[in-house]
């Protein structure tokens, strides 16, 4: 089957048409697939373009190498600020990306290896079907750097698994192994690492040969039932995160993370 490179950003991710399947891969393995502002915008553009492309019948989202996505690339924050990228712009780009995945008219399959952290959790849970290696994990690490969850992550955890687990993940900022996440209903399935690709490929192929309009309407109905409060959550996150991104605690948390030391919050 022929493939056509359809990359929409010079760095950070690739999008390749593989017949009716669009394969979107975050390509920053040296930073464990952390994403910067430009990558978030480019990914959002890609999902929106795919929505208007009738040749796309399914989308597979993954990360290059051993991790899915470890959240925002804090090493890019200073340079982005110098370019005039504001916290509001960052939040809008994250919300736009998550919304584009949720609203995609074709099913999105997330393939998770290693870490899905920060906005990476939101991207994994925004997909319709999420398959993870059993040695991978989810981590809402925001509180560890003085922030709050964004990308609708906490809302999607609560919708799938309930408020108690969402509170534990968001307030404690600890890893949730994929096997436990699957047990709570956050993942479609956790699989042995050597079985993950076979499963994802089989699912993508079945979706790509399915009735596109029926799948679209089914997906829409499921999301209306389960994610009716997503826009409200995204708005609340934007307001809170804009404040926190300008706080001394975030500066301390981000610096401590980059310096690999424990943060001392006010």
Automatic annotation (TrEMBL):
SUPFAM superfamilies for the chain: ClpP/crotonase
Gene Ontology molecular-function annotations: catalytic activity
InterPro entries, sorted: ClpP/crotonase-like_dom_sf, Enoyl-CoA_hydra/iso, Enoyl-CoA_hydra_C
One Pfam family recorded for the sequence: ECH_1
Gene3D superfamilies the record matches: 2-enoyl-CoA Hydratase, Chain A, domain 1, Lyase 2-enoyl-coa Hydratase, Chain A, domain 2
Protein family according to the UniProt entry: Belongs to the enoyl-CoA hydratase/isomerase family.
Name this polypeptide is given: Enoyl-CoA hydratase/carnithine racemase
Native organism: Nocardia mexicana
Phylogenetic lineage: Bacteria, Bacillati, Actinomycetota, Actinomycetes, Mycobacteriales
């Amino acid at each position: 089957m022929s493939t056509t490179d359809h990359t929409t950003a010079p760095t950070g991710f690739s999008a390749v048409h593989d017949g009716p399947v669009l394969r979107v891969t975050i390509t920053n393995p040296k930073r464990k697939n952390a994403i910067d502002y430009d990558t978030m915008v480019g990914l959002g553009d890609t999902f929106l373009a795919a929505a208007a492309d009738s040749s796309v019948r399914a989308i597979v989202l993954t990360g290059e190498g051993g991790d899915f996505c470890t959240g925002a690339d804090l090493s890019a924050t200073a340079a982005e600020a110098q370019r005039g990228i504001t916290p509001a712009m960052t939040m809008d780009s994250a919300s736009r990306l998550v919304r584009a995945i949720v609203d995609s008219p074709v099913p999105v399959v997330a393939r998770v290896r290693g870490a899905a952290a920060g906005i990476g959790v939101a991207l994994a849970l925004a997909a319709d079907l999420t398959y993870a290696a059993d040695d991978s994990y989810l981590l809402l690490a925001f509180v560890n750097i003085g922030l709050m969850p964004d990308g609708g992550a906490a809302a999607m955890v609560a919708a799938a698994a309930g408020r108690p687990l969402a509170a534990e993940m968001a307030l404690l900022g600890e890893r949730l192994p994929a096997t436990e996440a699957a047990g709570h209903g956050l993942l479609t399935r956790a699989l042995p690492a050597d079985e993950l690709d076979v499963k994802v490929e089989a699912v993508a192929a079945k979706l790509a040969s399915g009735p596109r309009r029926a799948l679209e309407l089914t997906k829409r109905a499921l999301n209306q039932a389960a994610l009716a409060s997503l826009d409200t959550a995204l708005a609340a996150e934007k307001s809170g995160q804009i404040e926190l991104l300008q706080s001394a605690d975030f500066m301390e948390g981000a610096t401590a993370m980059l310096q690999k030391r424990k943060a001392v919050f006010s």
